[in-house]
Design goal:
It is globular and about 70 Å long. With 309 residues, the chain is an all-alpha fold. The chain has a two-stranded antiparallel sheet.
Length: 309
Amino acid sequence: MKNTGKVGNKIFRSGSTAAAVTILVTLAAVAAFLIIQAWPAISDPSVRVRTVGSAEQLNIWQFTAPQIFGTVLAAVLAMLLAVPLSIGIALFISHYAPKRLSQSLGYLVDLLAAIPSVVYGLWGAMWLIPKLVPLYDWLATYLGWFPLFAPPVSSTGRVIASASLILAVMILPIITAVAREVFLQTPKAHEEAALALGATRWEVIRMAVLPFGRSGIISASMLGLGRALGETMAVVMVLSVGSSYSFNILQAGKHSTIAANIALQFPESTGVDRSALIATGLALFAITMVVNMIARWIISRRAEFSGAN
């Protein structure tokens, strides 16, 4: 029995090590591929490429920077919409809803997370956007003094605000599902101790559940952010692309994202144009890596984030 245990431990340790090495090798291979393929565009300052919707020839930085701006803007707007709502839904499912209702809602959230992005894109383009145009008009009329809602408003609704809203709907079930499972793992002793001290339901959540689930909330948010940063088809289907630095989220032809631009241009690109597109993919890869590294630092910088306290 002891020998069997030792053999099993060795097999498990070897398998775990192989899995970890495979992940690192795969990540390094992706990074190497992107760098090699993008090198002709990023190493030659004389390279000029054309962006969608413009005949102007741009250098690699002028080509990439507006797409980085649009990608980050769309993702940040989506996170601002999705994260608070996701946490609220997760808390309702885990601590407020009756058991039968919470199970049904949990299944529904999991189902929404599995819906393909093209379905969200079709839903947004054909049903949601026409209903958003009157809201955009109202925002521009009464809140147009604020840069985000400055007129003129696109009559088609194919603006970065619509893309961000679709992204928020897409990442909401992902964040909700992870946060729900984290909240359900809160030690019952913590909750019962708070109740014994006379805490209300909200005070229990504020003092016991949220501190315990803080690292889980951050992890869930990073998963959602990763999908928002890299989403392609839904954005392509609802956004009228442009190439500028603009905070006017209700105006069409102002923004693009890296993934959407690659999807639009890559099938017809060759040579240095393809290298330029891969260079933008390398930029997205780097952004995703940096975001995840920051998230890991936030989680580990204080012991209370671990949920152990």
